[in-house]
Each structure stands twice: as C-alpha cells, then as structure tokens.
Amino acid sequence: xxxxxxxxxxxxxxxxxxxxxxxxxxxxxxxxxxxxxxxxxxxxxxxxxxxxxxxxxxxxxxxxxxxxxxxxxxxxxxxxxxxxxxxxxxxxxxxxxxxxxxxxxxxxxxxxxxxxxxxxxxxxxxxxxxxxxxxxxxxxxxxxxxxxxxxxxxxxxxxxxxxxxxxxxxxxxxxxxxxxxxxxxxxxxxxxxxxxxxxxxxxxxxxxxxxxxxxxxxxxxxxxxxxxxxxxxxxxxxx
Length: 239
What we know:
Elements: E1 2-8, H1 24-39, E2 46-49, H2 53-68, E3 77-78, H3 87-101, H4 103-113, H5 118-137, H6 149-164, E4 172-177, H7 179-190, H8 194-202, E5 209-215, E6 218-226
Helix pairs in contact: 1-2, 3-4, 3-5, 4-5, 6-7, 7-8
C-alpha cells in the first residue's frame, strides 16, 4: 500500500492586490509543517506541486525546513493537474450580475462591503464565495472561456490516476495544492456529490494535509484535515 499526502497551501494574501502570494502567516505555517515532518521522520519518495505561487512556495518552504533539519527532500515537480479552479474569474464575472438579480446574494455582498474588521470580511466573503461557486459548479452560471466544474474535476482526477496508477508499492508522495483539488480527491475516495465535494473543500484549513492510501485502482481516505504542526490557534486559517 502506498501513501499520498495532499497539502493545502499556506495562507495566501487575501484582499491584497496579489492574492497568489503567501502571507507571513502562510510562510510560518509552511515552516512548521516542514519541521514537524522532519521531527517525526515522515519521508517522501516524490513531491509535486500545482503551478500557483502559493502552492509552489508552500512546497519550497516545507522542503527548506525539512532539509535544514538534515532530511532528504525531493525536488518538487510542477503538475498543472493540481491547479485550483478559476474561482476569482468566476466571482468577477458572475457576482455583479447576481447582485442585481439575486436578493440573497445582494444581501450577502452588502454584508461583506459593510464589514468593519478583517475577520468579518473573511467571514462575509466566504458566504458570498460559497453561494456563487455552488451555483457555478451546478451549471447555473456558465462563465465563457473558463474551465467548467466538470472539466476541473476530470483534470484533477486524471492527475491522481497518473500518480497513483503506476503499480508500485510502498511509496509515499506529497502534493501541494489547494482546497478544490483536495475536495476532488475526497470525491474520488468517498463517491461524493458535487455539493458534498465543495463542502469538504471549504473545510480545509491552510497548510492542513489529508492522507490517502492507494494500490492499483484502490484509493482510500486515511485521514482528513490533519494539522498537528499548528499548535497555536492563531495559525488556524482558511483564507
């Protein structure tokens, strides 16, 4: 039996001009994961990352910390299969129309605009995000020129099959990605609906990891949302 660890990137720069960049807190989360894996001798035969800066930088910092402690860390290979879906583009295209036509979305968006603190902004934005993305994933909001939810799922599943279907046993691999691909891995292991897949993706904290066992066509969830390296509650973030 082989092991696959799927890691969500550290906290990115939410509400900043360049979201696709780790925050100071995201860098710290990544360092702690590298130190934790090194201390507990969690070694990997191969490491992969999605193409986004926040994904690559998480893998890089984890590896730097792991090597600093004397461990051997494989050079990460970039795989586009594990890119996130184009949430920013979906929101930018669909939200203005929904604010005009959907009373529920309009109220959620107004709450976000009226938020008085960053914590309130995080919370109110997530409510808007979940409603809009759920409509898009259900096929209610097609966005021209943007990969659809079904195509996104096919892409991630193809990447998972390529990495887990080579027949070798006893391997341990890590993939640094985002909440969406982690949700799709959960979908594969548990035969989830689209709605349940999205719910599982939205519950993944920054720099948490989920472990899957695989052998041949078998792909089984072993653990979900582990973050024993984040002992300080201030480092428990979702955006």
